[in-house]
Amino acid sequence: MAMAVAIALAVATLIDNVAFAHGNVTPQPIDASELKQIGKDWLSENPYRGDPKAIAIGASGYNQNCARCHGLEVISGGIAPDLRYLETGKTGDEWFLERIRHGKKNAEGTTIMPAFEGIFSQEAMWAIRAYLESKHEE
Ligand code: HEC
């Protein structure tokens, strides 16, 4: 009997750990307070393009929150698009903001890319975009 309980507990712990590894990953906060603050309205173009401080903040934010799917240093292992090839400039900015704010669900309604609106500040989002653009490849 004690054995059965021990096994049940071990299995429950295992299931918990697996669930944690796959979903429910707590976003890591990104402090972008050192950057020029933007305000409430959503911009359609990255105000920090090429800014070294934004790129540094974005690099850390990206590697803690996006790399597990999109790959360390923006080199995708194939489970999510390789963001080095995201279009540069304003067109890429708009697409980037759409995805990071709203995420993406598949046809069955399962989240395949989490939404980050309400989690990261707009400043933090554009800092990540500045980092991504610094890694751009054709
Ligand atoms: C749980 C995995 C996961 C995480 C975490 C994740 N993404 Fe994604 N992302 C995806 C997937 C999958 C797609 C492809 C969605 C589709 O099919 O349109 C995607 C798409 C994108 C796209 C559009 C790419 C394109 O070529 O259309 C951008 C931009 C993007 N993600 C940025 C980010 C950023 C920035 C972060 C971190 C803040 C992040 N993602 C975190 C899985 C993830």
From TrEMBL:
Keywords: Electron transport, Heme, Iron, Metal-binding, Signal, Transport
UniProt key word Membrane: no
Pfam families named in the record: Cytochrome_CBB3
NAD in keyword set: no
Molecular-function annotations in GO: electron transfer activity; heme binding; metal ion binding
SUPFAM superfamilies per record: Cytochrome c
The Cytochrome c domain, residue ranges: 53-136
Leader sequence segment: 1-21
InterPro entries linked to this entry: c550_proteobact (IPR030991), Cyt_c-like_dom (IPR009056), Cyt_c-like_dom_sf (IPR036909), Cytochrome_c550/c551-like (IPR051811)
Name the record gives this protein: Cytochrome C550
